[in-house]
């Protein structure tokens, strides 16, 4: 709910999306924004924060323009990700990349035989995917706006997206709704619990005002997913501070 917060007029102050708590410890301020930690569950977040309309306005064409640099390298990495999931889970059918940007994962999934779809809020990335990569199943907008059918995707990839999403529970509920009963969600996000995160937290490069709204470790992420019937079935080793997990419906895990 928006409040006239002292020093942050018109910003949104929220309860902890993981545990519902309202008791936060101040950590530091960066870019004029307050980074805090929930005393109840340990989630780190920006709170209060700018209204989402203001945040979204920052995702302009420059974001995707930067992402399309080294396109061949990024497509190669996307192919590795797709091959790994196919090898580990025997996946086939429909694939959705949430936050697809320029569409490299969508292209890799299509080349692997999937009916591959992508969604992103940023128009320039969608245009690149259609024009440069020849992709047809790309949509511009927020995930919940697409009204995909229930259980329609056998694989969903969601890399470096969840930390940007203002309404976490609505987002996770939508992922759970469109994931097939025995489908796999491959999710990646910065890992604040990683051993290589600096002890002086504010020096960590992943603290990005008005961009990364939340910072998970494996415990807070699992708690966020649980009310939606989702469980982490695999945590992959990451040399850099990234949380890389496979998620499934608890009933089908």
CA-based gyration radius: 18 Å
Multimeric status of the protein: single chain
Gross morphology: globular
Mean pLDDT: 93
| Distance between the first and last residues' Cα | 36 Å
Question: What is the CATH superfamily classification?
Answer: Vaccinia Virus protein VP39
Strand content: 25-35%
Give the helix/strand class: alpha/beta
Order of helices and strands: EEEEEHHHEHEHEEHEEHEE
Characterize the biggest β-sheet.
Answer: 7 strands, mixed
Number of domains: 1
| Major sheet strand order | 8-7-6-9-10-13-12
Provide the helix percentage: 25-40%
Secondary structure elements and pairings:
Layout: E1 2-5, E2 8-12, E3 24-30, E4 33-38, E5 44-46, H1 52-56, H2 61-67, H3 71-89, E6 94-98, H4 104-111, E7 115-120, H5 123-132, E8 138-140, E9 153-159, H6 168-178, E10 179-190, E11 214-215, H7 218-225, E12 230-236, E13 242-249
Helix pairs in contact: 3-4
Describe, in plain words, how this protein is organized in 3D.
The chain is of the alpha/beta class and 253 residues long. The chain has one domain: Vaccinia Virus protein VP39 (Rossmann fold, 3-Layer(aba) Sandwich). Helices cover 27% and strands 30% of the residues. It has seven helices and 13 strands. The protein has helices at 52-56, 61-67, 71-89, 104-111, 123-132, 168-178, 218-225, and strands at residues 2-5, 8-12, 24-30, 33-38, 44-46, 94-98, 115-120, 138-140, 153-159, 179-190, 214-215, 230-236, 242-249. A seven-stranded mixed beta sheet has the order 8-7-6-9-10-13-12, sandwiched between helices. The chain has a four-stranded antiparallel beta sheet with strand order 3-4-5-11, with no helix packed on it. A two-stranded antiparallel ribbon has the order 1-2. Strand 7 (115-120), helix 5 and strand 8 (138-140) form a beta-alpha-beta unit.
């Amino acid at each position: 709910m928006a409040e006239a917060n002292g020093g942050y007029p018109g910003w949104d102050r929220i309860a902890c999306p993981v545990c519902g708590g309202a008791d936060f410890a101040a950590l530091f301020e960066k870019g004029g924004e307050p980074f805090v930690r929930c005393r109840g569950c340990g989630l780190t977040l920006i709170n209060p924060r700018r209204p989402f309309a203001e945040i979204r306005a920052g995702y302009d064409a420059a974001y995707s323009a930067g992402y399309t640099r080294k396109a061949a390298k990024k497509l190669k990495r996307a192919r590795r990700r797709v091959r790994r999931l196919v090898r580990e889970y025997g996946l086939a059918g429909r694939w959705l990349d949430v936050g697809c940007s320029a569409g490299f994962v969508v292209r890799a999934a299509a080349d692997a035989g999937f009916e591959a779809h992508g969604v992103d809020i940023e128009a320039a990335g969608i245009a690149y995917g259609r024009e440069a990569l020849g992709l047809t199943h790309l949509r511009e907008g927020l995930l919940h706006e697409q009204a995909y059918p229930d259980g329609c995707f056998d694989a969903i990839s969601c890399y470096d997206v969840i930390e940007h999403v203002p309404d976490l529970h609505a987002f996770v509920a939508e992922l759970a709704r469109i994931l097939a009963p025995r489908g796999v969600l491959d999710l990646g996000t910065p890992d604040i619990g990683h051993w290589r995160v600096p002890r002086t937290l504010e020096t960590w490069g992943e603290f990005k005002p008005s961009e990364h709204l939340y910072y998970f470790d494996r415990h807070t992420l699992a708690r966020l997913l649980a009310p939606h019937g989702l469980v982490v079935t695999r945590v992959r080793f990451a040399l850099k501070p990234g949380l890389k997990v496979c998620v499934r419906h608890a009933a089908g895990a």
